[in-house]
Structure formats: C-alpha cells, structure tokens
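Budget justification, computational time. The allocation requested in the original proposal was used primarily to generate structure tokens for proteins on the priority list. As evidence of use, we reproduce two of the resulting records. The first is shown immediately below.
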Amino acid sequence: MYKFLILSPLLASSLFAAGTIEGARMRDTLNISAIVMFLLFVAGTLMITYWASKRTKSASDFYTAGGGISGFQNGLAIAGDYMSAASFLGISGLVYLAGYDGLIYSIGFLVGWPIILFLIAERLRNLGKYTFADVASFRLEQTPIRILAAFGTIATVLLYLIAQMVGSGKLIELLFGLPYEYAVILVGVLMILYVTFGGMLATTWVQIIKAGLLLSGATFMAIAVLYHFDFSFEQLFSKAVEVHDKGRAIMAPGGLVTDPVSAISLGIALMFGTAGLPHILMRFFTVGDAKEARKSVFFATGFIGYFYILTFIIGFGAIVMVLHNPAYLDMAKQALSGGAPIIGGKNMAAIHLSHAVGGDIFLGFISAVAFATILAVVSGLTLAGASAISHDLYANVFEKEVCDEAKEMRISKIATIVLGVLAIALGIAFEKQNIAFVVGLAFAIAASANFPVLFLSMFWSKLTTRGAVIGGSLGLATAILLVILGPIVWVDILGNKEAIFPYKYPALFSVTVAFVAIYLFSITDNSDRAKRDRDAFEAQDIRSQTGIGAEGAATH
C-alpha cells in the first residue's frame, strides 16, 4: 500500500495517460488529442522561456524573478508546484480504493500550509534573499549551516527528481510510443531549457499555467460527476456504497492507517515536510515583501484546499462511474483486489473517469495536464538544487571572498545542466526499481533536517551553531536509516522476512531526534560562538518582524 500512499509522483505520473482506457491496450494505442495538447503546452512554455530569458539578467532575476511576482500570482504558482500529479491521480485513486480514508492524505498535505502561513512566511521573506539557508544561517556560523542546509536541499531534490523522471518517462513512453530512455531524455532536456534560460520567471509562469489547467480539468470532472447525481452528495455516496466491494466500510475511517504511531508519524511527515521543502520555501523570495508572502500562502491554501475537495468528489465519482461501468469492470476488480500493476489499476481511476465524462478529447486534456504537472515540478526542483549549489555552497562557502554575481550566475547554469544530466541518468537507472520510497524519504528529510533548523533559527533564542549542525545531521541520518530498516526497503526491496524498524513512516522518530538533539547540544554549548549566536537573536528577531535591513541577510 505504501508504494502508492506516500504521494509518489511516480504513481502520479507514470501513468496512465496515454491514450487508452484498458490497461492492456495502453501501449498499443496513441491518443492523438493528448499528443496535440502536449505539443501545444511544450511550444507555449518554450515561448515563455524565451520571453523570460530576455528579462533574466541578474542573480535576483534568476533565483527570484526579481521579486516582482504578486501575491496572487505566487500563490497560484505555489499551488502549481504543490498540486502534483500524485495529488490528483494518487489521492483520487486512494478514495476510489478505500473511500473516506483517502481524505486523510489530502488533509495531511493541506494542514502544512497554515504552519507556513502563521509561523514562517513573513519571517522567511524578511530574513532571506534567495534560499532558506540564508535564513537558517542568518545568526549562526555561515559555513557549517549552509553546508548542512545545502546537503538537505540537494538530497530532497534528487530524491524527488528520481521519482519525477521515472514517472514522466513512463508517461511519454506511453503517450508517444517512444523508448523509455528517449522519453526521459526529452523530459530532462525540457527541464534544463526552462531553468537555464528562463530561471525563476519562466518556472513561475509554467507553474501558473499548469495550475490553471489542472484546476480547470478537475473542476469539470467534479461538476460532471455531481451533475450525474443531480448535485446530491447523498445520492453519490449511497451509490458508491452500493457498488463498492467494501460496502459501508468506505464511509468509515481506519482502513488505511490502523495504528496510532503510523497515523501520527504520517501526519508529522506531511505537515513538517511541507514546511521544509526547499523548492516550496524558495517561492517566498519571489514576492516584493512580507505582506505579499502572506498573501501567497493565503491564495495557495485556498487553491490547494479547493483542489483536494475536488479529488474527493472525483474519487467517489470513479467508484460509481468506473466501477459500475462494464467497460472498466475488469480493471476495477483488479485494482480493488490489489492485483493491478503500478501503471494502471488504482491510480487509473481519475483517467478512466475523465474518459467516462468527456470522451477521448477530455482524456487527452487530462493526460497532457498530467505531463504539464511533472514539467512544472521538475523545473522548481532543479532551480532549488541549482541555487543550493551556486548560492549556498559556491558563493557563500567555497568562494565567498572572490565570487561575484556573474560567476554565481554561471555556476547556477552549470549546476542546472549537471542536475539535469544526473536526473536523466538516475531516471534511466531506476526504471525497473521500486522507487516509491524515495518520495517518502524526501519528505522525511525535509521534516527532520530542514524544518527543525529553519524553525528554531527563527524562534528559539538559545539555538547555537553546534546544536543546529549536530541535531540537523542526526535527524537526517535517522530518517535515512529508519527508511532503510523499515518494511519498504528492508522487506520489499532487499527481500528480508521481517523489518528491523516496524513502521513505514519514520518522521515521528527522526523529527523527535532532531529537535531533542538540537536542544541538548545547544543548551550545553558554552563556547564563544554560542554566545555570539544567542546575542544575535534579538537583532534577527527585530528584522524578521519588520523587514528593516532584510536586504543585508546572509552578508554578515
């Protein structure tokens, strides 16, 4: 179950698109409307990249679009970055499989946003410049904190990119009938073009367009489902209970996460992981001030919340209109029995529903939107990884005395190309692997290494460099170790009979380790560096709340 639960973009994207309805026929039939819409999207986004390249002249332009994005635009772009194909296809598939319990994941993804809104967004914008490492290192020693933050960023980005590249390669392979390797190369080349030439401005508009397409498509599907039942949720749910193999059980909780430890650990991963994702945090530097940053999260929360309501309707609609439809009956029975392959079955529910309510043309639209989603996400990830390498490591660690803006920009573009090539290589290497665990690990790293250091650097006056480095490193190591020793890797991948660590979700333990270690190693630190760290908190706190002098962040 985990291989599809933890928001894997593989599930999201690998997928289903391509142009047929029955899984056995997917590789044999091309959906011409999907191909046309895909080509239109690629052509449009390349034109945006060309336009953005003319306006990307400085490091500020490249990393943050010059801070000229409005709160509404940034909110829509954040939603586009966060509403992955996994959210659309994965959560609707969960609802289709288990009913009410599928809502657990959509709620988990959503509740991280109030944390960002009320605790982080304003301070992040006032203290930072390009990356969240600017904030984490504001009053602490630059070199070790930036190295830790950059390592957490790069690890999260690469894990995400593996899943995205495998998923997008499968999608294009199905859509065009291309060999998988060529499909992955195509995605990687587009990703490199968007980021290298267009920077954050191009990435932002790709995400805005993708968000608009996804929200439009999901809205149409939800309205079509409700229209079928006279806009009566009672009729929809009653029919779903009638046709689903689990009957009334689909309207009750407890079907997916059965023990309290797993439930709490999953919630922590989704909430704190969201608040530690580097490509999401980076978006708050694209607006002009803290007020626009707050607006960004307000609008993003609204768009994302609305979207997850739609996925719930789509999931129940698929139960009735797909499960009860003879054309899809074999697929539906296979999915509900747990025997469906990863490219099909449960995760096909929304795709099958799109065909049921809109025919081949709407199926083509949804298929193209799934691919647009992947391009938007990989662009944001690549930009975050490149900024960690060029800004955090090269400009502020290795060459901080001699690096100028031109050099930093050049390193950014080289890093983008390197990350793109690496993503292509990893996507090809992991084609046959069960890579679902890597996104769970990415969230665990974000929650265990990135979030504690970022959060405490802004709110705890006694935090020291020693505490942050040791605690963040222990949280990172614990998350990786527990995933390896857990059921997914230790049993499913390595073939052992029993997992050493019994839970699939490590965040409860790894986040606890991080916070406890940061606390203990900070309060016992009596060094001169620790005294300077504590003394600097008051000045940082004033700046984080007022924004006065924020442009001086990370330059002390």
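The second record produced under the same allocation is shown here.
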Amino acid sequence: MEKKDVIIIGAGPAGLTMAYELLKDKKEEYKVTILEESQDIGGISKTVKYNDNRMDIGGHRFFSKDERVMNFWKELMPIQGINSFDDEKLGREKPLVEGGPNPNTEDNVMLVRHRVSRIYYLKKFFDYPITMKMETLKNMGFIRTIKAGFSYLKSIFFKKEETSLENFYINRFGKVLYSMFFEKYTEKLWGRHPSEISADWGAQRVKGISITAIIKDMFKKAFGKKGDNSNVETSLIEQFWYPKYGPGQLWETLAQKSQDEGAILKKGYKVEKINFKEGKIVSLECDVNGTKEILTGDLFVSTMPLNDLVAGFTGIDVPNEIKDIAKGLPFRDFITVGLLVDKLNLENKTDIKTLGNIVPDCWIYVQEPEVKMCRIQIFNNWSPYLVKNPEDKVWIGLEYTCQEGDKYWNMSDEEFINFAIDELVSMNIITKEQVEDSHREKIKKAYPAYFDTYKDIDKLINYLNTIDNLYCIGRNGQHRYNNMDHSMVTAIEAAKNIKEGVSLRDNIWNVNTDKEYHEEKAN
C-alpha cells in the first residue's frame, strides 16, 4: 500500500502531537514531514537557555481535564514526586548535563509542583483567583469590601448581555471587583478595553471561574477535599506537573519519539506559498536560508497563523471577504525579560516552604496600572533545575505584551531591559544593584486576539473546511487562545479523522468551545 504523504507546518505542541498520533500505530500508512520555521522545538512552549539558566516563555502548567492528554504526557515523561525542596538533597544530585538534559536518562521526568499565583495590587498580594478570606478583605479595606459586596449582589440579579468581555467579567464578579482586578490588566494585556473584546476570550480562558465557583472551592477544601484536581476549574487547581528542565524538554522528547517512529523534521523551513490545483493543496513553497524549496504532499496540517496561511494561497480564487477576515485577525506580540537577582524584596508570609525562602509564586499578576508589566514569573518555583544556583539566586521573567513595530518592540535589548528593571524598582520588588544578569526574548504572534475581524471568523472556518486535504490545528492554526492541552486535543482529533476517513472538521474546531467545559456544573 502506498503511504499517504502528510506535511505538518509547525513543530509546536499541536504539530508534534499530530505527527506522533499518525505514526505510533500506523507508520506503515503515512509518511510524515514536519516543517519548522525556527531552529527551536515547542513553539511558544519552548525553553530558552541563557547562561546556564532556563526561561519558560509564558509559563506552562501541565494539567488537563482530558485524560488522553494526561496519559500522553505521563507516557512521555514519568512523574517524579518532588513537591518541595526543603530536603537535604534539594533535588540536585548532579550538575546539569552539558547541552541540556538527556531524554534517555533519569533527567527525563515530570515534577509535581504547587500552584501559587497571586495578584500584586496596591503593593499588596491578593490570591488568584480572588478568595473571600480575611487577608483579602483586609487588603481591600472596609469601604472597598462593602462596595464590592453590593456590586456583586447587583450582578446576581441584573445580568448583562454578554456582548463583550467586560460584561462577561461583571456578570461573574460585579462591577467593583471587575474594575479592580480585570479592567486595567486586560487592557494592558490586549491593548484594548474589555468592552471592545469578545466574551469568547473569557469563556475560553476564565471558564467557570466566578465568586460562586470560588466559594464552592473554599467549602470543598474546608471539608477535607484539598488537593483534589479531578473536578475543579483549571484556575483553581493546587498542583500540576512540570518537566524537570522546562516545557521545551517534553516537546524535544516528543520530537525525538516522532522521529524514531519515522517522522522527518526539517528546521529552518518558512512556508511562504500554499499551492492549489483543482481546489486541493498540492505543494508548499518554502524559504530555506534564502533558497526556495517545494514539497509535495497528499494531506496538509497547518499550525501557522490563519492570516499567513490564507495570504499564502496560490492557484485558488479566494473570495475577497475571506481574505479580509483572515488579514484582519489580530494578535498580541510578547516580550519577556529574564533577570538574575540575588534576592527579591518580597517576604514569604505564606506557610509554603521554598528553596531560599523566597515567595512561593509561580507567577505574579501585576495589576498596578502605572506599569506596563503584566506578570512576573519566578522560575525557581517552576523547577529549581531552571536555575544554575537556585539556593543563592532568583531567576525571574518579566512579561509584556505589545505590537510588532511599536516603540516597545523596537527598543534595543539594553533599552528595554533597563525599562523593565525600572518598573520593577518602582514597585519596590528589587533594587538596580540586585540585578546580576539579564536577557530579552521577543515572540511574534504569541496571543491570538478576539476583536476586529474575529467576529466573522466562522465564515473563514467554513471556507477552510471546504479544502478537503487541509487540517487547521493548534493555537494560531485556529486563532484560538488555547492552552497546550487543547492544542494537543485538536491534533488528536484531526489524526483520528484522517485515520478513520472522516471528512467533517467539527470535532477539531469544537475543542475548548463546548459549554460543559466552560460553565460550572450547577449551571
């Protein structure tokens, strides 16, 4: 039997999962080629190595409500039950392997991690999601607390039509809490006011989180159910898995396993043209270090941004409306600054033990409206193996969103790093003298956005579904702000359709959109 030639665009979570799913039990039926524009594996889920320290771009918790994904991860990397680092070995029996961890050794494991994420607002810490405990009320102050309570009660009885992300938040938290903890942060993140953003973003990212969900979670914990992640909203989980050397380690492991099954991985291949004949894709034209290379295939799987995909269509008459929708789909670009400091000027007032007794947060949401910074990652708390000297130094990531070509994007590395340091100093988190090393990373099209022509994306999806041998998967491939697990599920569903000869694409596009996943069970 002649093998079907499958070409996958992108070596991120979705693309790699797709390759492995097709080949693991059907390698005699498919020839799979993965094209990756960069020299890295994992897309935005890669791990950046700098001066023996490692950066997780955006922070990636390995947790899913889909058992297929949890089993997939566990099969790739066994779970090692280290949850704290107060033992005498500190989980560092030997130095880092030169050039990175070896996927065939005991380095290739997942750690079990505490989830701690808090909000930094008014130069105080608030739990995220917001909790109704005494410390929260004390930090808010009596007057704010009373206003927030009445505002929430009003939101219960007078629901707004969810025509925007603003109304989505107000319906769940009330106007006062929305104004305190969501409005300015969302505007920093997306560069748009929440009233201009579709409620779809909230449905996908915030899911069932509300005051009611938080109170339910508090009662469950009070009656002995603390730590049970099996039936809890993703933002309320207390533990998650994490690869010992960062998320890129898992994707590098999957890339190797896919190649062991027969996949061909080509790095440095930028897809510029998608060539059609008689309504079907027949080949891709790639730029490879300045030279053109054409690859033919039978089936094509795309994780590239939808606007780039449609812009590259040749040999087919794409309706102008479809071109305009694809071209107008917005993104936010991402900048992160890694800083190595000798300490943070933040006191650990929690009962969670940490290496060096630093604050236990994986990341801190920065709500302070006078700074542009969105979040602070503390890499030591994701895994001490990300840091060369975790006992003595703190390695943090300062996260920003912007638009490619704006003043922040165009700053030199030195200018932007100094800008970021100044913001952190203004929040009294560090002093300039505490900074020992720094590094900047820029990521294009990191976050698909939900405004502008997004309102018409269903028309684009319907059009793409008419192309029989094209499958769109992953975050940018569907212009959907998915987590890693959702991106993987789009690949699992697409591979299933291909293997079973199913022509419909509904199950692929419907990942992370079903109402049951988003809303509380009681609703």
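A brief technical remark on that second record: The domain at 4-41+251-328+451-516 is CATH 3.50.50.60 (FAD/NAD(P)-binding domain).
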